[in-house]
Amino acid sequence: GGIAHDFNNILSAIIGFAELAKDDVPEGSPVEMKIDQILRSSDRAANLVQQILTYSRKKEHQLQALSPHLIIEEVLEMLRSSLPSTILIHEDIDQSCGQILADPTSIHQVLMNLCTNALHAMDKGKGVLSVTLSCQEITPDDVMPESGICAGSFVVLSVSDTGDGMDDLTKERVFEPYFTTKETGKGTGMGLAVIHGIIRDYNGFIKVDSAPGAGSTFAVYLPLLAQEDVPADAAEVETTAEAIVIPTGSERILIVDDESMLVQLHERQLQRCGYTVTGITDSVEALEVIRAAPEQFDLLITDQTMPGLSGVELVTEVQKIRPSLPIILCTGRSDLVSPDDFLAMGGKRFMAKPVYKKELFKVIRDVLDGK
Q: How does residue 236 score in pLDDT terms, banded at 50, 70 and 90?
C-alpha cells in the first residue's frame, strides 16, 4: 500500500505535467502525439497499480464489455519497439470475433505475460511469435465436467512460439506458483499462475500444446459476451470522452499535499482555469491558515497520507472550525480510508490518485455547484 501511494504520486505528476504540456502545443503536432503516448502509458501504469492492489485485497475486477483485438494491437505495438529484428511477429486477428466481459488491464497482463514467456522460450533470439484471435464454439465434449466450465461460444486468444517446447512433466506443472524453468534471477514462476487465476475468475480456461523441439502454444478461452448483454452506451462513452469541455471558475481553493511537485501542478492547472489557488505542503500549517480566517476558501482539496496531520485528521479538525467548507480527499492508498467512511464524515468527494485533469475539474465544479 505504501509503495502504491508513492508510485501514484509519481504518476500524478507525470500525467499532470504531460497534460499541461499538451495544452501548450499546437493541436495535431508531432509533440502532441508523443505526449498522448506518455499519457496512454501512464494510464496503463495506473491501471496496473490498481490491479495489484485489487488482486492483493481479493476484490472484484472492474469488468466491462471490451473488444480484445484493441488490447492485442496495443501490446504488439509495445513489443515491436523492443524486439530484436530476428524475432518475427505473425498476427491472425479476427476483429469481428465479438466482445468479452473482463477488466482490460487484466487482459493486457495476460497477453503481455504470454508474449514475454514466448520470447524467453526463443532464447537464441531467433524465431516467430504468433498471436491469433478467433471465435470458437465449445461443445460439452470439449470441457472436463469437473472444471465448472459451461459449453458455448468462446473468444480464443492464442500465443505461439518456435522455441524449445516442453515435455509432459513441465506442462503439468506450468501453472503452479513459483514453478519456473528459467535460471535463478530470470523468473519468479508467478506469471502463469497469475494468468491462470485471472482466466478462471472470468469463467474461462487455458489449453497448452507443446512438445520438445516443437515450440509451445497457449490458448486462452474466454466466454463470448452475448450481444444483448453489451451495454448500449459502451461505444458512446468511448467516442464522446474526448469531447468533454474543461469547466472553469473563479472560486478560492486550498490545496494541501506533502508532495510539493503535486501542489505546484494543481496550482498551475487551476489558475489557468480562473481559480484563485493557495498551495500548502504542511497539513498542520494548512489547519492554522484555515483557523486564522475560516471564510477565505470556498473549497479544500487534501491528500490523505501526510506527516503531521493525515487527510482525515485534517478534515476532522477543519469541520470543527467551519463545517460548511466542502472538502475533496485525494489518495493513492485507499486501504487507509474508504470512500464511504470519508463521505460519512461529511466529505464531498473521494478521488483515487493519479487524478486526471478532466476528472478533477469536473468534480471540483460539481462540488462547488452543490451537485
A: very low
Surface-to-core class of residue 103, CB atoms within 10 Å of its CB (0-12 exposed, 13-18 middle, 19+ buried)? buried
Q: Rounded to whole angstroms, how far apart are CA atoms 68 and 110?
A: 11
- Who's near 197: CB < 8 A, 6+ residues apart? none
DSSP 1: -
β-strands 152-161, 205-210: how paired? unpaired
- Using an 8 Å Cβ cutoff, are 73 and 79 in contact? no
The predicted model scores a pTM of: 0.56
Phi (first) and psi of residue 274, to 5 degrees: 100, -5
If you count them, how many residues does the chain have?
371
pLDDT digits (tens, 9 = 90+) for 257-300: 999 999 999 999 999 999 999 999 999 999 999 999 999 999 99
Is the pLDDT assigned to residue 51 strictly greater than 70? no
Residue 330 exposure: Cα atoms within 13 Å on the Cβ side: 24
d(CA 92, CA 131): 6
